[in-house]
Design goal:
Length: 206
């Protein structure tokens, strides 16, 4: 989350500077370089797909873990059926949410990751990346992985909010109903799902 705040501050500073000075135009990549970048993005498609799946899985797993603890308070004769019902709802959420988010990630890659690669890599380096050689260019690409994923993750997180929040809210309501728990307060219901991914990141860091 801290990195996102840093990026937001940098974006604000850049906007303020643009109001007082004309920024130099970014160099236009050659058609050959654009084609090479497109090939690299195709090769990296599994990475973007995994990123999207993780964004769906993280809050679903958190909710499942919470439901597992709450199941201990359910009467024993109903515990198994309630557990199966919750498991089915969570699986359905994952199955329905992953494909559209994965598709969104693949569509965002050319406009988000593509320009960064066009700026940072030469045509020769891109040719080496496409061939997946064990070369200095490949090492450079690996070192830039954090920057590329950060840019992609921030954009995808913004896009994922409107897509996932209603589904997470519906899933949470079904899980609570299965457990016989009261519905969450209106003020907290709308914010919790949207922030579900952030606590998981902090927890893993510890």
């Amino acid at each position: 989350m801290r990195s996102i705040f840093v990026l937001a501050l940098l974006a604000s500073a850049a906007l303020a500077h643009a109001q007082t000075a004309v920024a130099p135009a970014a160099p236009v990549a050659s058609p050959a370089k654009k084609e090479l970048v497109a090939k690299v993005l195709v090769l990296q498609q599994p990475v973007f797909e995994n990123m999207a799946r993780e964004m769906v899985m993280r809050p679903a797993i958190q909710l499942g873990q919470g439901a597992g603890k709450a199941l201990q308070g359910v009467p024993q004769d109903k515990r198994e059926s309630v557990g199966k019902s919750i498991d089915a709802d969570i699986r359905k959420f994952i199955e329905e949410s992953t494909p559209p988010l994965r598709e969104r990630a693949i569509k965002l890659a050319p406009s988000t990751v593509g320009p960064i690669m066009e700026e940072k890599f030469s045509e020769d380096e891109l040719r080496q990346l496409v061939a997946w050689l064990d070369s200095p260019a490949a090492k450079k690409y690996q070192q830039m992985g954090g920057e590329l994923q950060q840019a992609m993750g921030q954009r995808l997180l913004t896009e994922a909010g409107p897509l996932l929040t209603p589904k997470l809210q519906a899933l949470e309501q079904k899980v609570r109903a299965s457990l016989g728990l009261p519905a969450p307060a209106a003020s907290g219901a709308s914010g919790a799902p949207a922030k579900a991914a952030a606590p998981a990141k902090k927890a893993s860091a510890k």
